[in-house]
């Protein structure tokens, strides 16, 4: 690959690395809040997304290593600051993911213009992941707003993520009859294998 020194793509990679790094940390904070509020599955989803963001940061960082190891690269950007309820955090996270989604398409275009097709491809692929993250956060926020996290209009199999007890009904039990963990440890049983 040709040198990134002096390119817009190098700056975009560093800004993307910084953005993904701060998102990872925020999502880990949000995961703890979600669990404290009784939303264990949402906490797990925040942690899973934090791991995704870490991997995105690593992808962007690796592109910079050949030309910039031992050097400083200035970061320019603005990053949302806020921590609230799980609902507020989901909405804020969705907004951030939407901004990344849009930004990465622009970064892909600029990388292509500068002749960095592999980097453009990475930005394009990660753009689609950020769109998925945004949509998932919005759906989870809607579930909280409509009070349907643990109650659905149709019958489901609800599984306790602690002991594996399966309850069939329109809502998860307030307390697991087997292990006595609270409702927050239930989720709709999904077998996608």
Automatic annotation (TrEMBL):
Annotated Rubredoxin-like domain residues: 155-189
- Note whether Nucleotide-binding occurs among the keywords: no
The broad enzyme category this protein falls into is: oxidoreductase
Pfam families reported for this sequence: Rubrerythrin (PF02915), RUBY_RBDX (PF21349)
Keyword entries, A-Z: Electron transport, Iron, Metal-binding, Oxidoreductase, Peroxidase, Transport
Any single GO molecular-function term of the entry would be: iron ion binding
- Record flagged with keyword Oxidoreductase: yes
Residue ranges of domain Ferritin-like diiron in the record? 3-148
Needed cofactors, names only, are:
Fe(3+)
- What top-level branch of life does the organism fall under? Bacteria
InterPro entries, per the entry: Ferritin-like, Ferritin-like_diiron, Ferritin-like_SF, Rr_diiron-bd_dom, Rubredoxin-like_dom, Rubrerythrin, RUBY_RBDX
- Tell me its EC number(s), please: 1.11.1.1
- Which protein are we looking at? Rubrerythrin-1
Source organism per entry reads Paraclostridium bifermentans ATCC 638 = DSM 14991
Q: Which lineage is the organism of this entry classified under, starting from the top rank?
A: Bacteria, Bacillati, Bacillota, Clostridia, Peptostreptococcales
């Amino acid at each position: 690959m040709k040198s990134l020194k002096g390119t817009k793509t190098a700056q975009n990679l560093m800004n993307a690395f910084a953005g993904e790094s701060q998102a990872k940390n925020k999502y880990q904070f949000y995961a703890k809040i979600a669990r404290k509020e009784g939303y264990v599955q949402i906490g797990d989803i925040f942690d899973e997304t934090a791991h995704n963001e870490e991997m995105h940061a690593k992808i962007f960082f690796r592109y910079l290593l050949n030309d910039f190891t031992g050097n400083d690269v200035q970061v320019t950007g603005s990053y949302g600051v806020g921590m609230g309820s799980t609902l507020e955090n989901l909405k804020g996270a969705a907004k951030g993911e939407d901004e990344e989604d849009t930004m990465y398409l622009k970064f892909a275009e600029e990388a292509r213009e500068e002749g960095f097709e592999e980097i453009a491809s990475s930005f394009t692929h990660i753009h689609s992941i950020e769109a998925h993250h945004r949509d998932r956060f919005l759906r989870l926020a809607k579930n909280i707003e409509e009070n349907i996290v643990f109650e659905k209009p149709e019958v489901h199999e609800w599984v306790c993520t602690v002991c594996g007890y399966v309850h069939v009904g329109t809502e998860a039990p307030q307390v697991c009859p087997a292990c006595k963990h609270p409702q927050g440890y239930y989720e709709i049983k999904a077998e996608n294998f």
